[in-house]
Amino acid sequence: MRGRCAMTAGRHSEEDDQATMPRDRTLPHAARRPARPGRRCRPIHRRISLPRTLDREAFLGVLSHELRTPVTTIYGGAQILATRELPAGRRRALAADVCHEAERLYRIVEDLVVLLRAERGDLVPAREPVALGRLVAAAVERELGRNPELQIRFMGASDATADEADEELLMHVVRNLLDNATRNAAGGSPIEVVVETEGDKVVVRVLDRGSEPTDQGRQGAIDPAGTRAGLAGGGLGLFVAARLVEAMAGRSWARGRDGGGAEFGFALRRTPVPGAIAPA
Fold first, then answer.
1. Which of 103, 120, 137 is the last residue of a domain?
2. Whether residue 89 sits in one domain with residue 172
3. Could you tell me which residues are beta bridge partners of residue 191?
4. Hey, CA dihedral for 74, 76, 77, 81, is it positive or negative?
5. If you placed Cys at 70, which of 105, 115, 129, 202 could pair as Cys (CB 3.0 to 4.6 Å)?
6. d(Cα 44, Cα 148) in Å, to the nearest integer?
7. Dihedrals φ, ψ of 142, to 5°?
8. Are residues 209 and 229 both part of a single domain?
9. At which of 67, 96, 120 does a domain end?
């Protein structure tokens, strides 16, 4: 059984939808959000766009693959639940699979909305310090709560802080990177999540022992058509993560690991430590 899901019967309402669907913490807060009291809003004139080198046909292929997988599971599972008598244990397991894929579909739709708003220039980060180490540690705990069978090791600086970032957008980024790693880790191998500081940057690395990115994916920015995740499902989430990092003036990458596997990571400007000497 994948994760936990409460199944309800009887009358269905809009309130039920709001209670059962995953909470959307990114979009309502990031779209043209007003500046917080006491903070000066810095306008962003750069528009976040799909790169010109992106093969849009390949992108549509990735999207088609990602939509087809959860829709097939939901449709097939619903048909079986509606037409067959199943043992109670099998019925609960199948219902949990349907719920898991419904949440995955919800995340795909959320990613598409993020891309649309980025294309329109409506995605405006808060530009404030974020306790990135604690945020990543909390995200790992949530992922383990959803999938207790996973092995995820959090290592590094839990007190690392990113400067001029956005908490909701960073939660979306980390969630997508963890989702990619959990779906591609080989044979239940451990996933490592590292947060560290390098000069004036705070760096997050998500490492697994799945297949390596292609040569194109090793070159730098994450491209759904040029990484192993783009070919195996998950490229959309990685691409959205890269666009959100770019919106916060950071950089992202995909590269292979010594001994096999992949590293997907990003770096943002680090909040200066009072009294510290800036790197030359």
1. 120
2. no
3. 152
4. positive
5. 105
6. 41
7. -65, -40
8. yes
9. 120
Q: How many CB atoms lie within 10 A of CB 183?
A: 15
As a whole number of angstroms, the distance between CA 191 and CA 185 comes to 7
If asked whether residues 150 and 94 sit together in one domain, one would say no
163 and 193 in contact (C-beta within 8 Å)? no
Tokens 């010594």, residue located: 258
Domain that holds residue 169: 128-269
Burial status of residue 88 (CB atoms within 10 A of its CB: 0-12, 13-18, 19 or more): exposed
> Could you list the pLDDT tens digit for every one of the 280 residues in the chain?
444 444 333 444 444 444 444 444 444 444 444 444 444 333 333 333 334 344 577 777 778 888 888 899 999 999 999 999 999 999 999 999 999 899 889 988 988 888 888 878 888 899 999 999 999 999 999 999 888 888 999 998 888 999 999 999 999 999 999 998 988 876 778 999 999 999 999 999 999 988 777 544 444 455 443 444 443 345 788 888 998 999 999 999 988 888 888 999 999 999 876 655 544 5
Spatial separation of the C-alpha atoms in residues 130 and 33, rounded to whole Å: 17
What CATH number should be reported for the domain holding residue 88? 1.10.287.130
Domain count, the chain: 2
Residue 264: strand, helix, or coil:
strand
Q: CATH number, domain at 206?
A: 3.30.565.10
Residue 38 lies in a domain: no
